[in-house]
Amino acid sequence: MTPIFRFEGIYTPVVTPYHDDGRVNWDALADVIDFLVDKGVHGLISGGSTGENYAQTVAERLELARFTRDWSAGKLPLVVGTGAMLTEASIALATGAREMAADAILLASPPYSVPTDRENALNALAIDKAADLPVMLYNYPHRTGTMMGPDFLDRVGRSRNFCGIKESSGDINRVHLLARDYPHIQLGCGMDDQALEFFAWGAPFWVCGGSNFLPEEHVALYNACVVEGNFAKGRRIMSAMMPLMRVLEQGGKFIQTIKHGVTMNGLDAGPVRSPLKGLNKDDKRALEQVTSILKRAIADIVAEG
Predict the structure, then answer these.
(1) Is residue 235 part of a domain?
(2) Strands 205-207 and 186-189: what pairing?
C-alpha cells in the first residue's frame, strides 16, 4: 500500500517560548520557526510534548498551531498534535487541524486511562475521522502507559490515513516488528539514542526535540544515513551526538534542556510552565560544553565529505 503522505527527514517538535508571566511570546516563536526553516529541517510539529502541550488549553494549542501554519507559510509540512486525555479534546484539535489545512496530525494514546488495543484503536479512528488527514502515530508507552500493539495497528490500518509512526518505546524489537510486519506505516525514530538503528531499518524520518537548537547536526545524521547511505559516516556522527543524548535525558529535564539550547542560539525560549522548573547552573554548563564539542566534531565530519 502506497502511503498517502511521505514523512521524510527531520521533523522538529517546536518549543513554545513564554514571557516570564507565562504568556506565549509570539515574536520569539516566529524567530524559532524562521531559524528552523533557515537551517534545513524538513517538517514542523506544533502541539507536541516538547512544546509543553500538557500545560496548555485546547484553545491555546490551536492558536499556536494556526500561528505556526501562518508564519511558516507552507515552507515546511506542519503536523498538529492531538494528544489529550479526553477524546473530545483530541477531536477538537483534529478538527482544528483540518480547518487550518495542516498537512498531518500527530496521534498518541490517551494518557493515564490505559485503554485496551481495541479501545485505543476506536479512539484513534474517531480522531482520524474528525481530521481526515494523514496521521503520524506516536507510540510512547512510558508516558501514556499504553503500547500500540499489533491488534491496535491492525485495526487502525483499516484507514489509509495512518501512514507513519513515531516509535518511542525504546524497545528495538518494536523497530523490527514495524519494519517487517507493517511496511505500509512509515517508521519514524522517536528514540534519539537509537536514530542510527532506525535509519538502518529503513526509517525515513526522525522526530527529535534536539533539532530545535541543533538542526544542522540532526540533518547531517539523516543525510549521511538516508540520503547518502553512508553508515560509516553516520556512526561517526552518532558517536559525536551520544553525549548530548545523555545530557538531554538527565534527571528528566528534557524540555528544560531543549529550551536552554534554543536560548544558547540567541533565541528567546523563555521559561517553562509549571510544574517544571528551569535548569540550574551546573546543568546549563554541562549542555554548553557538550554542545560546543559536538558542533565542532560534526562540522569536521561533514567537511570531510
Answers:
(1) yes
(2) parallel
Q: How many CA atoms lie within 13 A of 50 on its CB side?
A: 28
What pLDDT, in 10s, does the model give residues 218-245? 999 999 999 999 999 999 999 999 999 9
Query: Cα–Cα distances in Å, from 72 out to 35, 37, 43, 77, 99?
Result: 11, 8, 10, 9, 17
Q: What is the CATH number of the domain that holds 116?
A: 3.20.20.70
The CA distance from 272 to 107, in Å, is 23
Beta-bridge partners for 65: none
Question: Which position has the grid cell 521524510?
Answer: 8
- Residue 203 to residue 252: CA distance in whole angstroms: 26
* pLDDT score of 139 more than 80: yes
Contact call for residues 138 and 106 (beta carbons, < 8 A) = yes
Q: For residue 227, give its domain range.
A: 9-304
DSSP strand pairing (9-13 vs 135-139): unpaired
Tell me the average pLDDT across 146-156: 98
What is residue 18's DSSP assignment? Answer: B
The pairing of strands 78-81 and 43-46 is: parallel
Residue 32 pLDDT grade (very low, low, confident, very high; cuts 50, 70, 90) = very high
**Separation of alpha carbons 193 and 32, rounded Å:** 24
Q: For residue 270, give the DSSP letter.
A: -
Encoded amino acid at 123, one letter? N
Interval 67-120: pLDDT, tens:
999 999 999 999 999 999 999 999 999 999 999 999 999 999 999 999 999 999
**Cell numbers of 113, please?**
486511562
- Total structural domains in the chain? 1
Take residue 278 and report the three cell numbers written for it: 528551569
Q: Is 238 domain-assigned? A: yes
Q: 111: cis peptide before it, omega within 30°?
A: no
